[in-house]
Every structure is written in C-alpha cells, then in structure tokens.
Amino acid sequence: MPYLRDLGVSHLYLSPVLQAAPGSTHGYDVVDHTRLSEELGGEAAFARLARAVREQDMGIVLDVVPNHVAVTVPEWHNPRLWSVLRDGPTSPSAGWFDVDWSIQHGALLMPVLGRRIGQCLRDGEIRLDRSGAEPVVRYHDHAFPVRPGTEDMPLPELLTQQWYRLAHWRVADEELNYRRFFDVDTLAAIRVEDPEVFDETHALLLRLCAEGAVDGLRIDHPDGLADPRAYLCRLRARAPGAWLVVEKILEGDERLPADWPCDGTTGYEALARVLQLVLDPAGAEPLTGRWVEATGEPREYAVVAEQARRDVLAGPLRAEVNRLAELAWGICQGDVMLRDFTRRGIEEALLEILVAMPVYRAYVVPGEPAPDAAREQLGEAAARAAGRAPGREEEVGLVAGLALGDRGRGRRRDEFLVRFQQTSGPVMAKGVEDTALYRWLRLVAANEVGADPSEMGESPDRLHAWAAAQQDRHPQGMTTLSTHDTKRSEDVRARLAVLSELGREWAERQAALSAAGARHRDAEGRPDPVMEHLLWQTLVGAWPIDADRLTAYMEKASREAKVHTSWTAPDEVYDAALRGYAEGVLGDPDVVALIEEASALIAPHARANVLAQKLVQLTLPGVPDTYQGCEVVRLSLVDPDNRRPVGWDGMREALERLDAGAEPRGLDDEKLLVTSRALRLRRERPGWFAGEGATYEPLPTGSAHAAGFVRGGGAVTLVTRL
Prior knowledge:
12% strand; five-stranded parallel sheet; globular; alpha/beta; single chain
C-alpha cells in the first residue's frame, strides 16, 4: 500500500471478491453473493485490506458481476441452482434463472458429460449415491440432487424423471434451454431485473459501499442484462455516492446512451484513440500487401469479421439462434396476419441481421419508443441483411420490427425484443473479439478489444475531438491501455506499432524470417501461414519470451481462430505441429539472430511509443487505470499470460531511487517516472483534471511528429509520435 500511494494511485481496482467456484483464478464465476471469497480470506481479510487502504488515504473500486453465476454443484457451492435442479419450476429460486421449461421435456439441460449419456450409463460412470443426508446422482466430480419421489427407480428411468437432463457437452451448442454468458455453459445468466434477485445479489456489495469500505463499482458486461438502464438506475439509487463505470465496448463513433446514470465506460474507446495516435498510416499498404502475399487471406478485415460471425452463429451460439427463431415463429403462429411466415424464413432473416449488426447492442425497452440510435443501427443491419438474403426481404422486415418493438406488445413480443439484444452482444464478442481478431492479422497491434484492425493511424485531431467530447459527456469515465481482457499489453502494442512506420522493411524481414523458419515445419507444411504471420509479430512484440509462454499463447490463438483447431474440436496433429514450430524457431540461432536484429531496430521508436501513449492516457479526460505492473514495461500477452505475478519489490526500489534524484537506468525506470509524476500531479492539482475547473484544449505543435493538449489551463501534455 505505501508503494501504491507513493506511485500516485488513488484507488485499488479489485477483481470480483464474492464467493466464486472452487479453484477460480479470476472471481467471475460467482456461486454465492452473500459471502466474500473464502479463498481470499473472507470478511476479516477484506476488512484488513480496507483499513490498510484507508491508512494510505486511498480507496477501493470493486468489479461487479451482475449477469451470471457459475453452474457448479454440489449444494454448498450454489444453493440457488441446487434448489432448481431438485424442484424444477416450483423451486423458490426458479425465477432467478432464465430457463425455457417448455423445451427439453421440461428439464434443465446440464451438458457436463464427456461422452453420450448411453455410453456413460453403460460404463457405470453415472451412479446413484445414497450415502449422504440426501441421495445424489454422481458423475465423476459432479453431483446432482434427486427429485423427491424418484429415489427407488432404476437409474435410467430415474434420470428421465429429474428436472434436469444430463447430456454430452456438445449438445449445449444446439439445444441449451437456459441463457448463459456468451457460449460458456458453466456460467448461467440470472434475472437481475427481478427486484428480489437484484436485492440478494447486491446486498453485500451495497453494504460495503454504505459503510465506506468501497468507493466505486465497475459493472461487468451490462449488455447481457435485460434492461441495462433500469439496472443502473436501481444501482445508482442504492449507492448514490459511488463512482460507477460500465464495461461497455463502443464501436466507431457509437456513444454511451445518454440516459444511463453512470460515470462512463471502462475505457476501451480511449485505448483505441491512443493506439491510433502511434500508428503510421503509411504502413497500411506495405503491411497489407505482405499479409495477402504471405497468407492468401482477404485484404479486407470486414470480409473475415463477417465470416467469423457466421461461424459462431452456426456453432457455439446455435442454441441461442434456435431459441430466438422459435420464439419469433411462435409469435407468427399466434397472429393470423403473420401466420404465413415460415420458421426457416424467419431463421434466415434472423441470422443475416445478427451478422450485420454494427454494434454490440441496440438499446430498446419494451413499451418505449425505440431510440433514434437503435433505429439507425437496426435499419443499417436490416438493409445489409436484405441484400444478403434475396427473397427474404419481408422476413427481414418482420425480425427488425420485432427487435425494435414495432410489432406490438405481448409477453412473447417483449421477450423477443429483449432476447434479441441479449444475443447480438455475444455474436459480436465471440465473432469479433474471440475469432476475427485471431484470423485477420495484418498488424496485430490494432487487433484489440474496442479497436478496429482495419484502421491504421490518424492525425491528433481525431484524438482531440474524442477527448473534448469525453470532457463534455463523461469527464469521470475510465481510461485504460491494458486490462485483463486486452489481447496484449500496452507495451507489446507500442512495440508492434513501430512496424507501421517500417512497413516495407518489416515486410522484407518477415519474409526472411519465414524462409529461415521453413525447416521447422512438419512434413505436411504445418503450421499455416496465418499462424506463422502471428508468430513473428508476437516474437518481436514480446521479445524475449520463453518457449512455455510462446507455445501456450500460440495454442490459444489458433484455437480461438477456429480454423484448423479449436477448444471444442482440437486437432492434436495440428496443435503438435504449431508447438513444434514455435519451439523450433526459438531454438534456432539463425532465427533468433533475426528476431534480435528486428527487436533492436524498433527499440528506440518503441521507447517513444511506450512513454507517449502512457502519458496521454494518464492525462486525458477521465480516470486513468494502470493495470497491474504496467507502471513499468510489461510485455504480456492475452490471459492467462497477463495474470503473471508482479515484481512489487523491484518497482518499489526503483521508485525510491528515482525519488532520491537518480537518473533512470532504462525504459522501465523512464515509464515509472512518467507514470508516477503524472499520477502525483493529478493528486496535487485535482482541479486541473476533474470538477468544474477541468478543461481540455488541443495544443498546436506545428509538427506531425508531436501532439499535445492542455488540462485545466495548467497542465501541458506534450509527446512525440512517428
């Protein structure tokens, strides 16, 4: 705590602290909202932390997970779910979960089996255990309750009489009947729009706010909620003094809805704007040319992104599409004016609109006129969908009308309107963030959450325009460069951004690397050139990196791409070839020499980027977030690589040395110096950065190689670029 205070930090920003599933490494898989995490020490340890923070005149911001809970059993892990599994729709907790009891023969699908259920029963992997206080069905580490009155049946018959259906895990993509977090079967969505559910899931967090132990709340994935605005209104009313930000990704020039009572987002739009400041548009053509020549992939990112959305709709999110299509068809069957619309036609139109949505979600509330922004977004999607589905124009109009609330009210119509919005977000997240960003790899510095890989650099004027608008609309929103969700750390991006300045030279060096690494391919020529393209950029961006980190990252990247291998259908031969290639090039002195030459070439330019983007982020309008350890150079890749331990002792010693007047010893020290001085200035002169006196004025520099601005009439930020 003293080190963080000396650094200039005002608040600790904690990952979720409620009781999570056993062995959780992140806390997002909450099982009990009434307890603080026992693994983190529980209530007593949190009280000690809060006291230590207050002693340093700092505060605490908590990450809140309102949208889902972990699907874990047995009973003591998740009592709400256990009750629903035992008693079905008559359970007092049945209203917590978004379950369609009309399908799956009135049973909640539990896709936990490693093989088909017939094989598991034949081999005795599923059994009835009567040894405890109540009988349970066991499958390896899983336990399930037994519906009262069914204990004495033969096991196959007993299973058919339960309120749940044990199933092979692959069934979930097509037949799931509960809403989940994206495509994660082990995270079940809860109906936090129900006041009872809200009250119980938020009581502990709100108590901590009321007691003054917590100052701010970061809301995870608000797009998953039935009505984000209503949720935020309820939360604001119960915690009126809390700083409140939402993890909302804005696309392009999209704005946060003006009627949301929050302080802003978690800052991905700031990341995107700062990134563009250090990218050189002159690199677009040579880097695109090398990408197409080396891989044979499309020049246009949009082509790849569209196909990625189609792939996730046909695969991991198929169950969500089926449920939406069934709901829309049911609406038509109950209305004689719409009865001639077929289920197939509806589904085709629905798929095309979901593929074409330009944003994560259009915010429409049942019974309210659709906002202009929503009409524009769904209108754009419908126009593109109609063009892609000739002969289905009327079905497209029907689906778009239902999604906008233009087809009247009623339980089913309202449900479709809400569920459509809760589906479009996962399509964007899984199709773009978790698929397309691993397929189109021209320059992966730009392949980031909230950014557009097809954009390559812009003048400081666009940053100024965004910042001025931010100062007007959300002056207390968060700004960030690295988070637990970013594909690579800010410093890896800063290095890779230099390649946009050296487009032609890097294209030549990459060709040389490919030639030198050819001997490490397997007999069939694996891995594919797309993953090889990513490998060279990863090596340069994160150098030096060991084989364990590199191979783990490349495996994740290739499986997220879902082209040759995936998490649900791994190709062991391909995986082995990719792993062997990565290990081979790291152990090849000729290749290593080329990587070290490239790393040395970009180093001085990367230094400028590292320091420039950090200073800009720390002094833009908003509240800056410095992710763990990023006050020094942190060359991390996507999670779990970015959760590695932080070297607090070394950073504390370096800060003490700098404060004593020593010269920086390298880029780590320089970044620490920039970070600490900027954060301390914000603390010493808060009026320049927050409140009525805070202003943002662009500073003319007379050069394309410099950018600057003035905050509050007193603080000048000036950085070099390109």
